[in-house]
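Task card 7
Instruction: Convert sequence to structure tokens.
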Amino acid sequence: MTAPQYIYDGRIIGKKIAELKCALPEFGILYSIKANPYPPLLSYIASQQVGADAAAKNEVLLAAGAGVPAENIYYSGPGKTTADLEETFDKCVIIADSFHELELLNHIARERRRKKSVGIRINPSFWGTPGKFGIDEELCTVAALSCYPHLVIAGIHVHVKSQELDWQKIYRYYENVFSLAEKIQNELGEKLSFINFGSGIGVPYTTDDKPVDLAKLSTACDLLVKKYQSKIPAKLLIESGRFIVCEAGTYTTEVLDIKKSRGRTYLIVAGGLNGFARPAVAALLEEDHQATEPLFTKHHAWTISLDKKSDEMEMVDIVGNLCTASDILAKDLLLPKAEIGDRITITNAGSYACTLSFQQFGGQDAPVETLVFTDEDSH
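Output:
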């Protein structure tokens, strides 16, 4: 048996990085490590002068190990502990997610007898909802933010939505963030040194999805940046989310057994729920279920194929080899007639795939990950 495998195409990753840089040259790009933390992939992305968006201490350390300079690693996850902040204090730009984190950072800076530049994550009023991330905009007053004498509020971070395909909505979001940055800068009476706009640029998962019109977004953003650059001469950042890696990944696994049961055909494969969990999660949800990114994007957000050709087709369910009925990859899928040893391939497996799967459940071997370059001249 060949182990389940994730294959990431470095040529596609490089192409996606170039697309973002070309469309949004005024913005620095941060790779969202949570999308895919595979170390060789991180090292390649870092070699393309892309920074890192880290959601945890260990992601900061991964980014540093991949060669990302400390000034290009932005640590923005919630619930940071004193130990997290002490270990990462000089390894990244820390984004405080709460007043408590500001207190912790101020204490550490005082103990080290220095001033520390930090950012704050803001839950903006234009979003208008409560949430677990950031400090509500209306609480970000000079009185509240001046209580930390060993800190300098150097920048802001906002992130309210992932997987957006409408360039006009992305543009309006950027416009709102600029307006918020101007308000915070005026409140503090000091120029901001960076604005992190978060993520949001999505990828098409199905034939019904249209990709973000980067050309139109580029033209609009060029005018927007020119409007604000004299008032807010800050470094502008966006997080790549899944854009760089999603379409670069495929997942492949082997048919271990084929069963007929009361009129249904089951292809039993290795590494279902514990190898690529997103299809399994989607298969369990009703069509009207509204789940949250990145665990669930939409139904049929990938293509599942059998790596063979045959004139004989059959309707099958594809299930994993875990001892749970929830281990489902697909139901009622028309495929060429399979044999034991054939391989199943799933697309759009470059982001939120291996990293979201339940690999310890069931005691099975973890999938193998590999970075390849399909065009030898790309590396």
